Amino acid sequence: MYTLSYLLALAASLSVAFAVPIEDISKRTEAELASRDANAHEIEARGAPFFQFGDWTGSWSSYTDGEGSYVRSGDDYRYGFAGTGVHCWTDLFYVKKYYESENWARDDTSIDCATTQSCQSAKIKSNQRCASWSLGGEVNINVDIIKDFLSIGGAFNAGGSQTTCTIATTSDSCTWADQKCHAVWTSDVVLVSQGYVRRRCSSKKGDYTAWSKDVEFRTPEDQTRIGCAASCSDTTYPGPLPLPPS
To answer: What ranges in 21-62 are assigned the alpha helix state H?
Structure first.
């Protein structure tokens, strides 16, 4: 038989354990929140937490919250006690795109004009380049999410096929009128698409953003520019990068 003093002490401990005010829950990081209801039962998760976009607690995007075009949401999860907990999800936003010229790379083509009658290069193909993204190495973003993101900026044709790798070809060639040895260099073009993810949460006190992080996708274009100013002995290209497409 339990004594009255024991039962009173037990009731007091339970009130401390389960009566957590929403103010305390909303100030804590998601990793600290217990996925339990008021009866200490596990709350069913709607999707694995941080499986799609990752957990970037402490990070803040360089873009203004809400800026850009909304793409989709994921990593939907509920934390804390039923009725007083916090509901969180991650939003993906697209902001802008631009073209970028990649660094000069020396091609295998070298032409010694002193030993050949035709001092001219053929059309050059660059090395194979593949699409890449920057968010976090441990997060593998689903290809459907990437497709939705890039299609807003026109980098992905939803009606056709999309390859992740390409080999670009020059549209020009080099011609020299001397007796020197020349090396051909190339500068590839990449389409950079940028945006951010944000962790949005909702509680009885209202909605708020817990964290946000920049995201970048780099998609190779099927064009490269040729450089004709280098000699065979040059280890770096003796000229500036060509301007990227507008």
So the answer is: 22-27
